[in-house]
Amino acid sequence: MWDMTTDPQRWLLAAALTAAYVLLCLVIYLRQRRQCRQLQQQAAALAQGGRPLLLAYASQTGQAQALAEQAAQHLHRAGWAVQLLPLGQVSAAQLQAAKRALFILSTYGEGDAPDNALLFHSRILPSALPLPQLQYGLLALGDSQYQQFCGFGRAVDGWLQAQGAQAWQPRIEVDNISTNPAALAQWQALLVQHLAVQPVQGVEAAEGAEASTAAAPFPLAAPMQTWTLAARQHSNPGSQGGAVYYLELAAPAAQEAIPHWQSGDLVDIYPPALASEQSVAPRSYSIASSAQDGRIHLLVRQTQDAQGRPGLASHWLTQTLALGEPLHLTLRPHPGFRLEDNAQRPLVLIGNGTGLAGLRGHIRQRIQNGEYAHWLLLGERQAAHDQHYGQELQAYLAAGQLAHLDWAFSRDGAGKVYVQDLLRQHAPRLRQWVEQRDAAIYVCGSLQGMAQAVDTTLRDILGSAAVDELLAQGRYRRDVY
Ligand SMILES: Cc1cc2nc3c(=O)[nH]c(=O)nc-3n(C[C@H](O)[C@H](O)[C@H](O)COP(=O)(O)OP(=O)(O)OC[C@H]3O[C@@H](n4cnc5c(N)ncnc54)[C@H](O)[C@@H]3O)c2cc1C
Ligand SMILES: Cc1cc2nc3c(=O)[nH]c(=O)nc-3n(C[C@H](O)[C@H](O)[C@H](O)COP(=O)(O)O)c2cc1C
After folding, report:
1. Which of 177, 408, 409, 436 has the fewest CB atoms within 10 Å distance of its CB?
2. Which CATH number does 339-480 carry?
3. Ligand lying nearest the CA atom of residue 361
4. Dist. CA 313 → ligand 1 center (Å)
């Protein structure tokens, strides 16, 4: 038994701490409500006045979405009432009612639909829907290193044509928008010619943007920034898997305020070109820290191809770049993986390998916000070597700042255990968190293998319709690569 203190100073201190905590929660809640209202107001403002135009995007890591948001502003200024929607939220009735539409569609996986278009892919694409009234333009984003180049954009285009919709001009395809932003000139020409958008004169790139964005008629990327490598540590010595390093990047000293990002966002890092005339595509990395941490933390695995040749960016970041040296990056909003409306929900966080990075960003952000209802399920190879941020995670668990921590190690013992097996073991808890506590699910790490198996398992446990509903509500989000 313990005695309750009668010391008034202690009571005062406890009351002050409780009040401060309640105030912090209130500030966070109000800020999120304001952001949500702003988004709703922006969407409502875009849909005001003029002739109606449907603008639908399919985007996994945010590039198609950013382009759609930009185009929506230009179109609204040109007098259109723009209905801006992720493709997965577009209904058959909306398509049949629309006379004009624009589609900005990325491809994911192996020629697949991005997550925010999956419902369109499963419910609308397989059906016949006469659309003879519809005129449209379609911009497909992709990367020709993948076999199914612009596969999803091509599939939607073929379907629209089969329904009798008429394209203003052939589909525009952009091969790797990071290195080829000038390809968007054709897209701008379409908007100017068919939708009376004012041409963008010269370069509109934000101050500080460098060559990669300068030629874009609608510049996409945030300004490039120069950060420095402040710390680096080998996270898994002795592991059978590829070496993983934990990195910390410090903001430019001249910067008055640390550039802001939200947990879930990405950095695009520009590795140095091998030859001076070569242009190298930036590589994306999930940010493992919150903006309040002040530094960008990364978890980077050294990759190599089938011949054993080292991956360009991952080796440069983990081996060549010296402490204190500069590196160029852009901070990339990743709306599909941010907390947004889920900030106050319990979170089921599922990942493998370096996928812990994107999940840790959320955990740190939430702990800083006083939210502790998160359950972390992680897959790696060996308990003895591969527990990235292991001590920190154990400390969160001990302090009650993490509800559950479950590891699956695939190389320990006879039976291989993967993160999807953990989900099956804990199916009752999963159902309770999702069905009774309204939890959201975040998945980060490898697409092949992990994320696909996790998706199948979630559908087995919760039911496919329920998982589709979670997707539609933004309660199932993925940062998988
Ligand atoms: C959204 C997202 C988040 C990511 N987060 C992380 C993370 O947190 N940690 C982490 O370690 N990695 C992460 N990655 C992977 C990372 O971006 C790099 O792909 C990885 O580090 C390998 O890059 P590299 O330059 O070392 O290898 P590369 O030199 O790119 O070679 C690796 C393989 O990719 C192929 N390849 C080469 N160039 C390209 C190209 N331009 N486009 C497509 N394929 C190409 C090569 O054929 C080779 O098989 C993430 C990727 C994405 C898309
Ligand atoms: C994991 C992964 C899978 C991809 N698969 C394809 C593909 O099959 N075909 C293709 O053309 N592009 C593919 N891409 C390239 C993306 O379509 C391209 O980077 C696009 O600009 C991303 O836009 P978003 O940010 O709107 O998702 C893939 C990219 C990633 C990271």
Report:
1. 436
2. 3.40.50.80
3. 1
4. 8
- Ligand 1 shell residues, CB under 6 Å: 61, 143, 145, 266, 281, 283-286, 299-301, 303, 305, 311-314, 354, 357, 479, 481
Q: How far apart are the first and last CA of the chain?
A: 53
Query: Given the DSSP bridges, would you call strands 374-380 and 476-480 parallel, antiparallel or unpaired?
Result: unpaired
pLDDT at residue 204, as a whole number: 40
Question: What is the distance in A from the centroid of ligand 1 to the CA of 283?
Answer: 6
Are 351 and 378 in contact by the 8 Å Cβ rule? The answer is yes
Domain boundaries, the chain: 1-39, 47-214, 225-335, 339-480
Which of 63, 107, 218, 480 for a ligand 2 pocket mutation test, highest count of atoms within 8 Å of Cβ? 107
Q: Residue 38: its pLDDT value, please?
A: 72
337 lines ligand 2 (CB under 6 A): no
- 124 Cα–ligand 1 center, Å: 32
Domain 47-214 falls under CATH 3.40.50.360:
yes
Domains 47-214 and 339-480 share a fold: yes
Residue ID of nearest Cα to ligand 1 atom 43: 145
CATH architecture of residue range(s) 225-335: Beta Barrel (2.40)
Cα–Cα separations (whole angstroms), residue 400 to 345, 346, 367, 396 = 17, 14, 10, 6
pLDDT per residue as tens digits for the range 165-213: 999 999 999 999 988 877 889 999 999 999 999 886 543 433 333 433 3
pLDDT at position 219 is 57
Query: 263: closest CA among 292, 290, 294?
Result: 290
Distance 151 CA to ligand 2 centre (A): 10
Residue range 31-48, pLDDT digits in tens: 666 766 777 788 888 988
Answer yes or no: are the C-beta atoms of 131 and 166 closer than 8 Å.
no
pLDDT digit string, tens, across residues 52-84: 999 999 999 999 999 999 999 999 999 999 999
